[in-house]
């Protein structure tokens, strides 16, 4: 049973992390209002991936802990769960809210120049994405090396 849960855990990680890593790549290539609108609508559609993958990742991670209860005594395991909850809050709650705000700002914009309010909102989202990506890297390190 344990190996099947690990398999689902890995698939969930790939699903969630692929989307997380792509957010900054997609947004960094958009330069005009219409490009940003398209990029944000794409991110809005793919926002389900971190939500589903992340939730499944958390549930399977906890299931692994219940199957192997000694994991709850391991610092790397507990830290991974705590850090992952931060990632989940960022990508399931804060980033989608930022995307909606940015889309609203762009709907009010005429022309192709990006408004300053959008740039400020995008900087906040980029900062959150950076924190989440760094946290994901730390979680991966903890899981691989189990210090």
TrEMBL record:
InterPro entries tied to this protein: DUF2269_transmembrane (IPR018729)
Segments passing through the bilayer: 6-26, 47-69, 75-99, 126-145
The keyword Transmembrane helix is annotated on this UniProt entry: yes
Keywords: Membrane, Transmembrane, Transmembrane helix
Name assigned to this protein: DUF2269 family protein
